[in-house]
Amino acid sequence: MTTTPDRIDELVAAASAAAPIWRDSDAATRATWLRALAGALDGAADELVAIADRETRLGEARLRGEVARTTGQLRLFADVVTEGSFREITIDEADAAATPPRPELRRLLVGVGPVAVFSASNFPFAFSVCGGDTASALAAGNPVIVKAHSGHPELSRRTAEIAVAALDGAGAPEGSFALVEGREAGNALVQHPLVRAAGFTGSVSGGRALFDLASGRPDPIPFYGELGSVNPVVVTPAAAEARGDELARGLVTSFTLGAGQFCTKPGVVFVPRGSGFVESVAAAAHGATGGPLLTDRITEAFPAGIAALEADASVRVAAEGVSGDGARPVVLVSDASAVAARPEVLLEECFGPVTLLVEYADEGDVHAALAAVPGSLTATLHSEPGDDVAATLALLQERAGRVLFAGWPTGVAVTWSQHHGGPWPATTSLHTSVGATAIRRFLRPLVFQDAPAALLPRELRDESLERTPHRRNGMLVLP
Amino acid sequence: MTTTPDRIDELVAAASAAAPIWRDSDAATRATWLRALAGALDGAADELVAIADRETRLGEARLRGEVARTTGQLRLFADVVTEGSFREITIDEADAAATPPRPELRRLLVGVGPVAVFSASNFPFAFSVCGGDTASALAAGNPVIVKAHSGHPELSRRTAEIAVAALDGAGAPEGSFALVEGREAGNALVQHPLVRAAGFTGSVSGGRALFDLASGRPDPIPFYGELGSVNPVVVTPAAAEARGDELARGLVTSFTLGAGQFCTKPGVVFVPRGSGFVESVAAAAHGATGGPLLTDRITEAFPAGIAALEADASVRVAAEGVSGDGARPVVLVSDASAVAARPEVLLEECFGPVTLLVEYADEGDVHAALAAVPGSLTATLHSEPGDDVAATLALLQERAGRVLFAGWPTGVAVTWSQHHGGPWPATTSLHTSVGATAIRRFLRPLVFQDAPAALLPRELRDESLERTPHRRNGMLVLP
């Protein structure tokens, strides 16, 4: 079912008409709208989880957790709106004595206008219709038009119905939220003259195509895409020695979580040769259970991806797990010199329960391979206190937006400081949809010079400043 | 003189080698480097102004002022670095009781890596070799490679020599700063694998071409371009009545400043028909002096631009000024319905001392024309306290990044709150090079999860937090 061009025009026109109302809404009202949306989704969790499980086969436990995460995310953004720093209010008082004399300037951030959001297949709630892109775009004061993912169409429609009703019930304007379906509809959205920005989570090829459309417009718009990530892990010899079995079990749990369909799955793990770590992982993986993959396309691509890796002369299978009525977990082993020589083969992201262990002999060996690792969302370093890891850490920091020193990259805490992004191809931009600063993607600066108080937006008037963190003449002021 | 591809490779490789040193430099060191650069330029002002005047003919008074503005800008960014908020340090403490348990996250912004800066013709200091793009990129912790503008090659070379010596003398690493020349060199810069971002001030066509190269890379990089702007002004009937002559004189001073070669020149002014305002402007313009234009290309384009406007049946010449050994100021008059019907003809930016007065009959008339005004850096509203300007202001806010309620848009105060940007074609991005937040363009987020204190960047360690504004568990904390 593809949304027709006429219908897209109607929906975008309604969003554009609603945009000034969202932009000018005060913090309390906007927070109420976000919380109403969260409440409605929580209230419909039983129904939504049942549909989601049928369409994605991710299982009830995981899906219930994901609903909670999604509504928690909406409420976090309600808090972000209420706290007020996101407006970045900055005041410079007039200075007649300066050369040249300085006018009074009052600056804030305001919503950019209608935002197109592209849902992901692998998080039918948290990165989908009412996921992080939608939450942050609404919080920034913008109507949202979501392109549904074809992997969960019924869930998308039902979630959108609930969202429209919740926003309407809370008093948000008509046109605040809409859903479109079909690839052509998505292409039309990023090219529509009234759409001002887009957020995307998906494949490198799909994201690149939409990024090119957005950038190729007569008036280019920002396109915030989260695409692909291999999420390198380095285990030092000391860490393998001190806690190899524990790390091996953690790795297996992480790379098989959600049947290996997380964008933060540890896809390539550098391990010391001869440390026994490969054998520990193999032992842990023997009992590991895979599961059904999300879509037919992913189901077909998984064995093809494994086969492409296995075709490399350096690669051998270290272990296979249990299929669990779907994809069987696989642990592959290669070596650092092969990865450094053929990164385009060995470091291709493979969606599903597989990880590639890369044996290294020494630091030079692992560094040469790390230099070939593409930009990733995360990088993980398992070391011991005595290790000299400065050079390794420098390489990992260059390649990822989040560096972990304990645990595993799957599981992305939704907090003020979180950052879900990294150099290309992890993302097309500095930010994506997780963490409080995701809101900044959908805001634009606006400065008022020598404005009479009556013509200032409410947030920039003196009486509002008393309640809002802001900067005055270069100094931060807290309420 | 075009920099060869081999030489570009050398310079970018040196910048890339210097990048980690800049990124990891502490605030005090980085501020010292910026102040050393400012001091060296101030010290060489006599020599530099003489070269600049020969190459640009902008006159000594203007050029001395521009040097002061440029070095003031470098010092402002030293202050921004010292103040520390630009790092956006955010800490979320671990929470073992959360579902799922939350790790400790520590976030900051770090430099993106080597930045390419494209100089403008019209500000040989403030938007050129050591201008706002360079100042903000260095402040963010990045080496810079400048593409010189062909309009002032000798000044560019001498400024770059001084910059390299000043940075070297202050202890900055080799590769911190470099200059390249020639259009092909500029194209090579935005496509170079080791260049991570670009800043540009110039024409719509030139900026678009470079934006397309940056976006079309295998790994797209952000391109922050300031392109073209007509800077609409609206004068209400009450304002024309109350202070028409004063406004007319102010307008003439503004549109002829720097021979009309400012990106913030008021290019289109909506005036009430029959108010006498056109006559007031004509009177003020008769004695106004133009001057030589910056380059042969601009000198040739100016009469062609005027001719294109005059060719429209709605346009007449209201006044001409005195050439001043160069371009003669011109005041043209059209009407709002013609502008609404043919914006592509009447709202084309024309660099040089010309402005278009657009007569309107009523609010509907001016609003229809305003809806056709392209995105601009500024919009100005001259009204009186009794005026109902809500609808007009809403239209202006949609079209510009800075809205003025007194004075004229030329002259851009370099302060914490300033914003120099607007919807396409004013800019390709939300930010450009003026104001403290220009620094954010050249930073990327980096999060450390559960890191041992010894492996954290210095700025994220507990002892540094005591001295730096930061956010902890969602709350802003001041030192």
TrEMBL record, chains A, B:
Keywords: Oxidoreductase. CDD domains: ALDH_KGSADH (cd07129). It comes from the Bacteria. Residues 4-415 form the Aldehyde dehydrogenase domain. The keyword Nucleotide-binding does not apply. The keyword Oxidoreductase applies. This is Aldehyde dehydrogenase (NADP(+)). It comes from Microbacterium plantarum.
